[in-house]
Write a structure and sequence with these properties.
The chain has 302 residues and is of the alpha+beta class. It has six helices and 17 strands. The model has no long low-confidence stretch (mean pLDDT 96).
Amino acid sequence: MQRRYVTVDVFTNRVFGGNPLAVVLDAEGLSADQMQAIATEFNYAETTFVLPPWATAHTAHIRIFTPRSEIPFAGHPNVGTGVVLARELEANGGAPQGRLVFEEAAGLVPIRILREDDTVVGAELTAPAALALGSRVSAADSAACLSLDASDINLKNHPPQVLSVGLPFLVAELTSKDALRRAKPNALTHEHILPPIGTDAIFAYTLGSTPEELQARMFSPLDGIPEDPATGSAAGAAIALLATLRTEPNGEIAWRIEQGIEMGRPSLLKGRTEKRDGIVTAVHIAGFAVQVMRGVIDFPAL
């Protein structure tokens, strides 16, 4: 059994930066167990599998797997898969792609293709769900997940809380860049605190030189991801909350999120939030992606 794949580094404009992603192009006929085995073999934060869409108006049905499980939505898999599919469709004689629509477990994910001249260089996703607010967590417990002190958690803007625009994360603001640098996951504490509140990951951030600039890290050892270089779904949830907390009732805000620096895989995520009558109506996450490898998976039926 053979399946084509492409790997890309996402939220970067250079190879070996950003967040690696494997895109399996010929996933029709694969079972969930086979997809999981392939994702575990790649051992990237996520691997995507491209299937024919259920509705002809959509581009593809996309399934997303971490090394340990299937998830309903994620950020860098959508940006990277959007870039790969736009390039593949055009390379096979299709018209230049401006917009794709992916069917995913969390809902429909619109993708806007980004170009420089005539070249596909990136993509912008629109989150499939409105901001959902989950359980709040104490400063002490969220700090313990990060091997920090409770005093390193900034409570002035919001408490640590589970947030989601399609995939849930515990989101905590830290008091300083130094605290962010010192953070490291405590797997035993994660196991005790996170699953009971409906997540397996924590997204920690601190504000930069402006309120629209964030520096972030994300840890999910329970899902086989000790640290993630770039997490679009968590960044989208964080900026949705920050936009909600702002006093402006209407308008669009541009955000800049840096991640992966401590890992040596610097990533840049560009966000946009749209707000109408005090409600955040849309969350977008954009970034570049560069191809790294292309090949064929050759494996026996499982």
